């Protein structure tokens, strides 16, 4: 398994936000975490990229331990790419400069080449010199994705990336996003509260309840019609 999360527990205060969370992901797979607001989805992503330290449990990526009871790999050393809901592009940098920002170890020529590659990937080559405020929401979203993919991350995390887009654009970008990620073969975790987003993008959907992960396929689409005993815990 490429990503392994074992018995992860975490609390901000007294109550456990994440409680014995287990999840294994194959290389190249896109997994969606589908859950209501406040269910702990963003917290799982924060733990994965090292912005929070778990109280207990283990996370490994590509066979390397990121965190367990003895070890903690710093966020910048984890090789994880992130796309947030608000794109978080640097406003004073052009599209190309935004993308190059993450390419620290690259020489000048390699930087330019990789920037061109990812701009082509997201179909935005003509906009390299623009500033973020000169782009539509959908275009900003694609640049944020290009920036996250540029350093060839081992794992890509996307936290509700469509929340700021209008409904029509959301539908268009859904299928685009899947295609782009699949072209790169990047293992990805996509967090959303929108079931249609999950269905359109994910190879596998899991959901969260009381801080743990459950396979969505084992749950009826209308939760109340389905007895909880039949939910199966994720392996
Ligand atoms: N920095 C924080 N300090 C204290 N509580 C937090 C913090 N961030 C999130 N929480 C709480 O943790 C729970 C899970 O939050 P979050 O992971 O953001 O959920 P989701 O992304 O599913 O909406 C919520 O009850 C939220 O209020
Ligand atoms: Mg969230």
Overall pLDDT level: 90
CATH topology category name of the domain at 1-72 and 155-161 and 187-235: Rossmann fold
Helix content: 25-40%
Proportion in β-strands: 15-25%
**Highest CATH level, the class of the domain at 1-72 and 155-161 and 187-235:** Alpha Beta
Low-confidence stretches: 220-226
Q: What does the radius of gyration come to?
A: 18 Å
- Spell out the CATH superfamily of the domain at 1-72 and 155-161 and 187-235: P-loop containing nucleotide triphosphate hydrolases
**End-to-end Cα distance:** 11 Å
Distinct ligand kinds = adenosine-5'-diphosphate, magnesium ion
Structural category is alpha/beta
Could you tell me the number of beta strands?
Answer: 10
For this entry, give a set of tags:
Rossmann fold, binds adenosine-5'-diphosphate, 6 helices, binds magnesium ion, 235 residues
What would you note in describing this structure?
This protein is an alpha/beta fold. It has a domain at 1-72 and 155-161 and 187-235: Rossmann fold (3-Layer(aba) Sandwich), CATH 3.40.50.300. 29% of the residues lie in helices and 24% in strands. The chain is built from 6 helices and 10 strands; from the N terminus they run E-E-E-H-E-E-E-H-H-H-E-H-E-H-E-E. The chain has helices at 41-48, 95-101, 108-121, 137-149, 167-184, 195-201; strands at 3-10, 18-25, 30-34, 56-61, 64-67, 80-83, 155-159, 187-192, 204-209, 212-215. A 6-stranded mixed β-sheet has the order 6-7-8-3-9-10, sandwiched between helices. A 4-stranded antiparallel β-sheet has the order 2-1-4-5, covered by helices on one side. Helix 5 (167-184) links the parallel strand 7 (155-159) and strand 8 (187-192). Helix 2 (95-101) packs parallel to helix 4 and helix 3 packs across helix 4 (137-149). It is globular and about 50 Å long. It starts with a strand and ends in a 20-residue tail after the last strand.
């Amino acid at each position: 398994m490429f990503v392994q999360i074992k018995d992860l527990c975490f609390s901000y205060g007294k109550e456990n936000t994440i409680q014995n969370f287990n999840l294994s992901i194959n290389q190249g797979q896109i997994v969606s975490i589908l859950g209501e607001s406040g269910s702990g989805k963003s917290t799982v992503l924060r733990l994965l990229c090292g912005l929070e330290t778990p109280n207990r449990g283990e996370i490994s990526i590509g066979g390397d331990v990121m965190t367990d009871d003895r070890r903690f790999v710093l966020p910048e050393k984890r090789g994880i790419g992130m796309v947030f809901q608000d794109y978080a592009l640097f406003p004073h940098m052009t599209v190309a400069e935004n993308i190059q920002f993450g390419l620290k170890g690259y020489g000048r020529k390699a930087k330019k080449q990789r920037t061109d590659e990812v701009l082509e990937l997201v179909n935005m080559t003509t906009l390299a010199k623009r500033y973020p405020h000169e782009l539509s929401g959908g275009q900003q979203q694609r640049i944020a994705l290009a920036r996250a993919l540029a350093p060839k991350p081992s794992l890509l995390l996307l936290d509700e990336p469509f929340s700021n887009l209008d409904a029509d654009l959301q539908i268009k970008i859904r299928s685009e996003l899947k295609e782009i990620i699949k072209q790169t073969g990047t293992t990805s975790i996509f967090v959303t509260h929108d079931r249609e987003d999950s269905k359109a993008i994910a190879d596998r959907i899991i959901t969260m309840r009381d801080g743990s992960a459950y396979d969505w396929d084992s749950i009826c689409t209308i939760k109340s019609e389905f007895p909880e005993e039949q939910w199966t815990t994720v392996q």
